[in-house]
Amino acid sequence: MDEFNKINKLYIFLEKYLEVLKDDASWGSSFNVPEHDLYARDYLNFAENQLLVGTTESLINCVSNLKRAVDCQIDTFYHTLTLYDVIKKRNLKFEKKLELLGAIGIFNSKSLTKLNAIRNKMEHEYSIPQIAELDLYFDLVSAFISNLETAIIVLSWDEKNLFTDDAEGKIETYFTFSLERGREPVMKAIWGRGDGESIEVKFEEYRCFAFYLRCLYLINIKSAFVSNKYVMDQISSAYYKLCIEFNKL
Fold first, then answer.
1. In what order do the strands lie in the sheet containing 197-202?
2. What is the mean pLDDT of the chain?
3. Which of 19, 53, 68, 171 is 20 to 30 A removed from 39 (C-alpha atoms)?
4. Nearest of 239, 246, 232 to residue 18 by alpha carbon
5. What is the largest CA-CA distance in the chain?
């Protein structure tokens, strides 16, 4: 099955059944955080301290620490998904790492664009950072770190067993959706039990992998934080963008 058909298969299923899918609460929860001397919030704290000093040297140091905070949090996030080595092997640059986060839907794409624009300006222009611009950058980085912390926890629920039943409680539809972590992470969807129809998506199928991971993230937050309508709207928006990319509209 090609990449778009894998996307289409999952979308059609969720569009039809999302409203009635129930969670059997048998999913697992696990993630490993890399061992570092310093983490994103350490760099964020350093940046805040430098911002308060307000000298030219401290403001430049503030920028450096904010950049380190973003880089550290992105690498930590991908490490918890066991994607870090895959991304490093493919030598994906900062912009591509952000692009994947946007595809998963963890951070608002406009905010990501603004974050990257400010970062690039401060990195490539030999000018003294302005306090107002630094305040904005600091707030964006702080929100970015918080979002990824939440996403790490939400995506630690890496397997969802979902079903629909009839009026008598008899299971009619069974669906397992999971992220299998490892040296080569795989997204997997299985319709039915045991030898049911299944789809596997490797990271090489970049757009499909991101779409599946986005759907897992949204399904995980569905019961606690958002409505079915919100989840389906987000999935549909991503789906139709992919239809355009694959020239299916």
1. 22-23, 159-165, 171-180, 186-191, 197-202
2. 89
3. 53
4. 232
5. 71
